[in-house]
From TrEMBL:
Residues 22-219 form the Metallo-beta-lactamase domain. The keyword Hydrolase applies. InterPro entries: Metallo-B-lactamas, RibonucZ/Hydroxyglut_hydro, UPF0173_UPF0282_UlaG_hydrolase. SUPFAM superfamilies: Metallo-hydrolase/oxidoreductase. Keywords: Hydrolase. The keyword DNA-binding does not apply. This is MBL fold metallo-hydrolase. It comes from the Bacteria.
Amino acid sequence: MTTLEITYVGGPTAVLTLGGLRLLTDPTFDGPGEYPVGRRTLVKTAAPALTAEDAGPPDAVLLSHDQHPDNLDTAGRALVAGARLVLSTASAAARLGGPVRALPSWTHTDLPRPGGGALRVTAVPALHGPAGSEPVVGEVTGFVLSGAGLPRVYVSGDNASLDVVREIAEREGPVDVALLFAGAARTPLVPDAPLTLTSGQAAEAARLLGARHVVPLHFEHWAHFTEGGPELSRAFAAAGPTGRLHLLAPGESVRLPDAPASRPA
């Protein structure tokens, strides 16, 4: 069985190598600084561990959304413009054009693998805040990756809803690996609720998904995150079983075991 290699770049950005294909999540390669979005400013506190050139050209970009600079920045937009394929929301496809392809929730596309067969990418829902916040925060998507002999992988995008996770688990679970965007992000845009999963919710999401391995993304390097690595470690230690959480340092890679969950591709 094939293993999944994940290299954590920083923020929401990771390089996934699966089935002979290289995928890139939410490309952000700019340095620290202030990034305006509407009337607000988001503050990036650390540089990515890799440049876009270091990460290498992806076979596909998995873009959860384009409307916030902490998920797609200036360098990321340049990468997207020249990419072979970018899978994202209908809103992103309309705004960005070029290689960006809208993939509505519960639909899929099959990416040919170099050695034969295909890697299936299924779009799944995401809610970037509490129920009813969609007109304010905009459209967001997540993804499930699957294929014959491959681990089943969930990439949450900026989802803050356990109800959404529960629906994904019922329709697409169990998963072998969950890449959960966490950090309990908070901004004045939605002052009364987090815009991404809290640490406790991330642990509960892993339980709902039956995830054997969890790699958190988008929980550090921006000032609007209110929970980081220590909170994630405590939440997963309390939830058990131990050894499921892989808290990577920027630039670090992990190769996760095979033996996919017992569900057809």
